[in-house]
Amino acid sequence: TDAKPEIYKGLAGVPVDYTAISKVNPETNSLLYRGYPVQELAALCSYEEVAWLLWYGELPTREQLDEFTALERASRAIAPNVLRAIDDLPLSTHPMDVCRTAVSIIGANDPDAEDNAQEQNLRKSKHLFAQLPAIVAYDQRRRHGLGLVEPRDDLDYSENFLWMTFGEESEPVVVDAFRTSLVLYAEHSFNASTFTARVIASTLSDVYSAVTGAIGALKGPLHGGANEAVMHTFDEIGSADRAAAWLDEALARKAKIMGFGHRVYKNGDSRVPTMRTALESMVEHYDRPDMLELYDALETAMGERKNIKPNLDYPAGPTYHLMGFDTETFTPIFVAARVVGWTAHVMEQLASNALIRPLSVYNGVDQRELPA
Ligand code: SDX
């Protein structure tokens, strides 16, 4: 018999390429964006600066930041055909599907969509970056029967995102927690959606196709969809005193507990402490200690039963809930943040491209003859 080649299910533990964009280090529980610890970036930088860093490899100079900021503010309005397409979708459409559709049309509107020159792809990356908040915000509003809120160019990216969602200015403490979540969500090496984007880019397709595909990959509850699933879990449990019993029942039926576990981090997600601090600030701001009690009760029970730690989606879900986002809007916010990482990876892939095409090992029936 032939020796069977080894299969790496889910590509677990298989390095498939180099990246200079971020370093996920499970040994030290750390995450670096272009060499900078993500916690420090979250504390000190605007989301616009972090986006620039991820795309260009260096923080922007004052002049570069001013120019980028002006461009971003001038590129926020949704094109009429994108708005019409969103309005044509049923209200029951999952917001991730709305995002996916909108990005697809934004690509269709770009006469240079197929031009993969680096400066074109940087332009497209910045354009998607500026457009996504409007799409995410408007989709939440229309599901409440509310109209589009025009962007305000006196507000920065994070402030304007909240403005377009809620139609009022948010308190600085809320903006800060939101911006922190965006910085933490921006990039995470070869996760499933980023890898999807790189696979699409590797065929020399275009940025919009790569981002559309990545949105599809992010939607699933084993990946980005977990932040919204966490909120459903919280709703189901109801209060801290019921967390342990709920968990025992869920584990008994072999359910996966959303917001826990990670393919790479086995001792805890490097981003969780920073996001938990942001959650604490929202719990205090909205006076909802019950939320943190439930959060801690489930985390503790999960630690005791399975020794499995929370991932970033665990603190992010309740944070967005307290801010007033609908549960179905959580993963689209992740899209708006991760579009930076996706586009940075598309450009890195193209800079030293090899078609991504692994092998499979056939285990179907042997060759046979068609029935006569
Ligand atoms: C993200 O890759 C990235 O970087 C992703 C991300 C990013 O920034 O891009 O960090 C964002 O996607 C975070 C993950 C969000 N997903 C969830 O929260 C869904 C719940 N988590 C799990 O399903 C799971 O932990 C995964 C999918 C995240 C990772 O799973 P693996 O590496 O494939 O591991 P596994 O499913 O094979 O689990 C190993 C063991 C199993 O037990 P045994 O069969 O060995 O006894 O751990 C158990 C699992 O049952 N386990 C869990 C669990 N996670 C792992 N059991 C219950 N609940 C869980 N959440």
UniProtKB/TrEMBL annotation:
GO cellular component, one term: cytosol
Catalytic residues, chain numbering: H262, D313
Pathway: Carbohydrate metabolism; tricarboxylic acid cycle; isocitrate from oxaloacetate: step 1/2
Cleavable signal peptide: none
UniProt record, GO biological process: carbohydrate metabolic process; tricarboxylic acid cycle
GO molecular function, one term: citrate synthase activity
Classification via SUPFAM superfamilies: Citrate synthase (SSF48256)
Keyword Transferase: yes
Family: Belongs to the citrate synthase family.
PANTHER family: CITRATE SYNTHASE, CITRATE SYNTHASE, PEROXISOMAL
Stated name of the protein: Citrate synthase
